[in-house]
UniProtKB/TrEMBL annotation:
Belongs to the sigma-70 factor family. ECF subfamily. Keywords: DNA-binding, Sigma factor, Transcription, Transcription regulation. It holds the Pfam family Sigma70_r2. This is Sigma-70 family RNA polymerase sigma factor. Residues 19-81 form the RNA polymerase sigma-70 region domain.
Amino acid sequence: MSEQSGRTTASLDEVLKSFEGHRRELCAYAYRMLGSSFEAEDAVQEAFTRAWKSYDSFEGRSSVRSWLYKITTNVCLDMLDGPQRRARPMDLNGPSTPESPLPMPEPDYVWVEPIPNALAFGADPAEHASTKDTLRLAFVAAVQHLPATQRAILIMREVLRFSANETADMLVMSPASVNSALQRARATMSKVQPETTKTFDETDEQQRKLVDDFVKAFESYNMDALTTLLKADVALAMPPFSLWVSGPENVATFMLGTGQACRDSRLVPLEGANGLPAFGHYKPSGEPGVWIPWSITVLELDDGKVSGLNFFLDTEKLFPLFGLAPEWREQ
């Protein structure tokens, strides 16, 4: 009996280990589907639980990877059973004037959230490079416009490169239905997705310099230097507020007015979010030498300029997710 139990335990350990090898790619998939890193983690954990419970019925007709994607897809579709879709402020309304008062914050389920690179990318640099663009905030927000099943089909076919037959098997559809839904999804994406910009490359010296120059200008609160780094149609957004502003001069006016609490901030570099440069943003606490959480700040770059300033203000949730301390002290 003990020998049988030992074999069962060993087998269980092997099964769970085989699941874990797919966690990051499944988390990235669920994030694209759901627009929330927290919901993505929950979805993958639920998928592993369902897979573990039904492993005895898995007969190996497909790979473990495909089987886990099928289960994760079902979990995500269950979670998306409703009209709510996550968005960015610029998806909900036009730009505000920089003097506009801040509106009331919206609930967290309204917004596309950032995801740490460490949750979404594996150790393979080639896989990292090939999928980074589809984790951009703009892509994830655009995908949210699709009905849930079309969303899954687009990601499976065009991001993960599953065949029409594999996708049909996962969704219990015919390949013809998958191809038809893919065409509709592509048509919608062509209308709502911004033009693809150059992916951030950590090894690109010019891009690294742009990010370094931004940090220097922002921390010194030099608006003249800052505006020279911004693209003409740069957008500044601060979820959970729906307000956003566009254009370098408007960004500067906002930062010197409503956003002046950012003066004397500190930007602590992160390994990245959504394949983009990101920082733990701390603001002055009022106590000399001590800064407190303000935002997860994610930069979007395009054509040698900063095209997007994203300040995610839900630090109570996001700072632990990114492994950040609850305060920053002068070194």
